[in-house]
Amino acid sequence: MNAKRRIMNHELRNSTFFVRHSILLVLSIVFCLLFVAGCQQPNQKESLTAQIKKLIQENTELQKQIEQSDTENKQFKQQIQVLSGLPKEVKLESLNLLDKIKIGKYTGFFDKDDDGKKEKLIVYIQPVDKQGDTIKVAGAVDVQLWDLNKTDSEALLDEWRVGPNELKKLWFATLITINYRLTFDVADKIESMEEPLTVKVTFTDYLTGKVFKEQKVIKTP
User: Fold this and answer.
1) Which of 49, 61, 75, 115 is the least buried, fewest Cβ under 10 Å from its Cβ?
2) Strands (DSSP E) along the chain, which ranges?
3) How many Å apart are CA 180 and CA 173, to the nearest integer?
4) For the whole prediction, is pTM greater than 0.85?
5) How far apart are the C-alpha atoms of 142 and 146, rounded to whole Å?
6) Residue 100: is its pLDDT beyond 80?
7) How confident is the model at residue 115 (pLDDT cuts 50, 70, 90)?
8) For the chain, what is the mean pLDDT?
């Protein structure tokens, strides 16, 4: 816990230090250009004016970064306060951690417009803890679609990556089950659905850094 707090403090100090010094540097350059502009010919002044406008715009963007950094710093400080208040006996192992992933039984291809062609691949992923319960976990997912009947160079039909910001929006619950539901366009990827295809899923848990893998054969009708 102490190490984590030290790292967070170090990171927030470094980010603010860098942005603030960048602004000072930009302002110094602007002042120098303004001084030089007073001594230049009209054509040269126009070029310097354009440079000054660009630097002023960059300075404005840096100011916005400072505001964002200040907001993030406040959030970090709140996290540090929470961590400081946790009992020493609280460890990572005490948390509800991911133990494995499952690919849902409804994973398969879907005809979105009833034209007889299945254009979408829907993959249901269930993160499961040691008690066998499905839990929502922050992480990233890599999905691959394979035709294992083809040669090695042609077997991988397509692959996709879903980052943590997108993944958290894909949590999907019904009366029967709860899972992540990922949808991919495969209209141009599959020539024929006469043979079974294989979906391979790799889930990277952002809390522990562990990587979980699972695969499922999709039998096409």
Assistant:
1) 115
2) 98-103, 108-110, 120-129, 139-146, 156-162, 171-173, 178-185, 197-205, 211-218
3) 8
4) no
5) 13
6) yes
7) confident
8) 77
Q: At what angle do helices 2-37 and 42-84 cross, to 10 degrees?
A: 170
Counted domains in the chain: 2
Are 29 and 138 found together in one domain?
no
Question: Which range of residues forms the domain containing residue 15?
Answer: 2-84
Long-range interactions of 84-90: CB distance < 8 A, separation 24+: 84/1, 84/5, 86/1, 88/1
Q: Is the CB of residue 143 less than 8 Å from the CB of residue 184?
A: yes
Average pLDDT of the residues in 82-101: 69
Q: Which of 32, 56, 84 is the last residue of a domain?
A: 84
Asked if the structure places residue 56 within a domain, the reply is: yes
Position 82 scores a pLDDT of 58
pLDDT tens for 56-69 read 777 777 777 777 77
Rounded to whole angstroms, the Cα distance separating 11 from 196 reads 49
Q: Which amino acid is at 18?
A: F
Rounded Cα distance, 27 and 132, in Å: 58
Backbone angles phi, psi at 3, to 5 degrees: -65, -40
User: Do the Cβ atoms of 11 and 73 come closer than 8 Å?
Assistant: no
Q: Which residue, among 87, 93, 80, has the nearest Cα to 210 in the 3D structure?
A: 93
Q: How far is CA 198 from CA 115, 122, 162, 193, 220, in A?
A: 24, 13, 18, 12, 11
d(CA 95, CA 1): 14
